[in-house]
Amino acid sequence: MKTTCFRLPLLPLLPLLTALLLPPEGAAAAPAYKAAVVKRWEWGTGAEQVGHRREPESNPEGPHAFDVDHAGRVWLLDQVNGRVLVMDDGRTRVLPLPDVAHTSFDIAVGDAGGVVLMDPVVKRALLFVDGAGKLRSEVRLAGRFIPAEETGLATGLFRREDGYWVEMRHDLLVHVADAEGAAVRQRAAVKGRPGMDGRTLWEARKLDDRNVEVGRRPAQGSPRREADGFAKVKFGTRIDALVELSTDARGTTWVGAHLLEEGPAPGLRVVHEEVQVVALGEGGAEQGRVSLPAASSPEELFRSTRLGGNGALYHLQVAKTGVTLWKVAR
Questions:
Q1: What residues form DSSP beta bridges with 94?
Q2: Which residues, at least 6 apart from 304, have a Cβ–Cβ distance to it below 8 Å?
Q3: If DSSP codes are grouped into helix, strand and coil, which group holds residue 310?
Q4: C-beta of residue 69 within 8 angstroms of C-beta of residue 109
């Protein structure tokens, strides 16, 4: 029996093959980054809980800030309970804090199991606490570049190879203490946030309600030098506030914004709210973006989003029952 083979021309089949192999037009591409829950803490005083305070004459208070070291350990500032919770591979260790540190706002991982805390309002100082929870040294914030009446305008604490720097008004970075916990003899100031490589300073500014411009300059250059235009980032909802600007050792720059859409007056009911972080490559091109839940409870956070020493981005969300830590990574 003779078998007949039919040879179909390939060219007319190309549209069909393309439709089968490629996603339909308009379909979302697989995200380069994703967010996952690392840990949830309920309000309370236990080892696996975080402190919570609501008083009639003050703002509701929960944990103010956190840091993540190069090993991925999370250091949560639980100042209401007078301690730092250190989460390592699912286990939690409690680092007690001296009474003088219970009004701290920001935290940076120190040496030998200790931490450095910033209190810009009450103590108006950096507090160096050792691994046993004892106060090792105290460095006042007021001095050159930080007037005594403006310490409350500090917006962040950053650790660099040469010590600890305090950010003022999301703008000027002031070298306050060395790596050993002593006040620097000659303060220096630079404009912008340091990249993890230590060679570049970064700035971000709102162009309008939905657009942000990111700029950079060499860390060793003149503070008066204008930042070079690096990238422009567009958000789909109104920007309420910028919450993150950081660059990891691999050259990824993170820009984060709290987005808020309100309905018409009167009432201005919140229609949509989220925190969105955008990853930019070395050339400024967008690599991906991730939406994270905004706070659903009024407790104030001093720093809700932070790049960890391990290169991953973390976000702390406050809710009615406690706080949740999210991790953003590939």
A1: 85
A2: 243, 275, 295, 315, 316, 317, 318
A3: coil
A4: yes
User: What's the token pair of residue 220?
Assistant: 């060793």
How long, in residues, is the chain?
330
Q: Which residues contact 75 (CB under 8 A, 6 or more apart)?
A: 66, 67, 68, 69, 84, 85, 86, 95, 107, 109, 115
Q: How many percent of the chain have pLDDT more than 70? A: 88
Q: Residue 76 burial (CB < 10 Å; 0-12/13-18/19+)?
A: buried
* Nearest one of 203, 207, 205 to 218, comparing CA atoms: 203
Per-domain residue ranges of the chain: 194-294
| 239-242-245 Cα angle (round to 5) | 140
DSSP string, 155-211: EEEEEETTEEEEEETTTEEEEEE-TTS-B-SS--EEESEEPTTSSEEEEEEESSSSE
Q: Going by C-beta distance under 8 Å and a sequence separation of 6 or more, which residues neighbour residue 195?
A: 201, 202, 216, 219, 246, 247, 248, 253
Q: Say which amino acid occupies 87.
A: M
DSSP string, 261-282: EE-STTT--EEEEEEEEEEE-T
What is the rounded distance in angstroms from the CA atom of residue 1 to the CA atom of residue 18?
Answer: 37
Please give the share of the chain, as a percent, with pLDDT higher than 90. Answer: 74
**What is the distance between the alpha carbons of residues 48 and 306, in angstroms, rounded to a whole number?**
22
> What burial class does residue 195 get, using C-beta atoms within 10 Å of its C-beta: 0-12 exposed, 13-18 middle, 19+ buried?
buried
Q: List pLDDT tens digits, range 115-166.
A: 999 999 999 999 999 999 999 999 999 999 999 999 999 999 999 989 999 9
Model confidence, pTM: 0.87
Sign of CA dihedral 236, 313, 246, 79: positive
Query: Is 212 within 8 Å of 242 (Cβ atoms)?
Result: yes
